[in-house]
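Exercise 7b. Backbone tokens:
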């Protein structure tokens, strides 16, 4: 692998000069600027950097990104397995065990030139081909973290003692595609996030300033809500993460039941996908963590050699149609996979091996 220096990039912020790395969330209450990556399964990496400056994503990456062949992607769940999973979740709902669960699949493809693969170069491509409000890079090769994200979803934003989340539920090509099911699902997850924040916020301080707002993103639209609260006394980052992680929008309701359903149906770990990716400025008491969706990561220890991974999924409710949910996972992945195959002929088609 090329000698890639550690860095973190979040929008126009560039952090270099790695000082230390820890898995202890209490460090985020200390001092300095931290890049944070929390895997869905619970692994936490907090990296403190000494040099943080404004630096826009370069129009052209220092080294070209050579992505996977578009037809080399495979899925942890194929069409038959995914739609069967949707039907199984509906059975759990009918039994009263869960109201909603997010069913995800992980896509993987071998890297054609892994020794020169740089996720920051992929971030530069994503900035042009799929701009996103919480885009970024976390590059810590020695710690097994190489992530490029184009996340549209806010997990946690913090300003002093004020904390807010921006759960997304409901996806379509246009606003006209959004169904009553999408609105009902969004409200259900907002209630879950309110409950999560209620565990760590002062009594009566949790509010919902925005409910089911339509946001436009490249190639699709989302329903987005905002949940806000004031942290209770003596609540720091360990308590905040323990009370809200993993993000409610990518688990389900009730969260504990949804996590059991997910574990039984999904065949691959999500890793940073559906976890948290972002930064904490402990000196200023500010932070911004995104939900790790629309996110690529390099898995170098993978059997058979280094691969690029990407996750996609959909929220399943009683009203879900299995084929429509499968199509939603394809819609969310199509544009991003095209961008990631940057050195190959571009097009809007889905890689043929993932058509089902």
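Sequence design result:
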């Amino acid at each position: 692998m090329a000698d890639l220096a550690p860095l973190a990039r979040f929008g126009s912020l560039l952090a270099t000069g790695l000082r230390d790395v820890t898995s202890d969330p209490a460090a985020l209450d200390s001092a300095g600027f931290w890049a944070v990556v929390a895997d869905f399964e619970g692994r936490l990496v907090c990296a403190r950097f000494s040099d943080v400056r404004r630096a826009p994503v370069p129009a052209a990456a220092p080294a070209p990104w050579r992505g996977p062949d578009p037809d080399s992607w495979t899925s942890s769940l194929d069409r038959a397995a995914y739609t069967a999973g949707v039907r199984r979740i509906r059975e759990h709902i009918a039994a009263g065990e869960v109201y909603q669960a997010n069913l995800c699949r992980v896509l993987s493809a071998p890297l054609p030139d892994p020794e020169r693969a740089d996720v920051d170069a992929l971030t530069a491509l994503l900035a042009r081909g799929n701009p996103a409000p919480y885009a970024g890079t976390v590059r810590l090769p020695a710690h097994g973290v190489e992530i490029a994200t184009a996340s549209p979803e806010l997990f946690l934003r913090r300003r002093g003692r004020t904390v807010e989340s921006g759960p997304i539920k409901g996806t379509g090509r246009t606003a006209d595609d959004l169904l009553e099911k999408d609105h009902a699902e969004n409200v259900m997850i907002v209630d879950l996030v309110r409950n999560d924040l209620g565990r760590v916020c002062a009594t009566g301080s949790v509010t919902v300033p925005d409910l089911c707002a339509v946001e436009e993103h490249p190639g699709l639209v989302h329903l987005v809500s905002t949940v806000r609260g004031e942290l209770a006394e003596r609540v720091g980052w360990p308590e905040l993460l323990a009370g809200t992680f993993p993000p409610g929008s990518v688990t389900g309701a009730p969260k504990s039941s949804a996590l059991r359903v997910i574990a039984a149906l999904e065949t691959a770990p999500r890793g940073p996908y559906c976890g948290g990716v972002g930064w904490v400025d402990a000196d200023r008491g500010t932070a911004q963590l995104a939900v790790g969706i629309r996110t690529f990561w390099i898995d170098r220890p993978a059997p058979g050699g280094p691969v690029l991974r990407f996750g996609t999924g959909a929220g399943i409710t009683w009203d879900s149609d299995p084929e429509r949910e499968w199509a939603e996972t394809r819609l969310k992945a199509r544009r991003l996979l095209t961008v990631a195959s940057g050195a190959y002929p571009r097009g809007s088609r889905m890689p043929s091996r993932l058509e089902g």
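Instructor comment: The longest strand covers residues 44-54. The chain has six helices and 18 strands.
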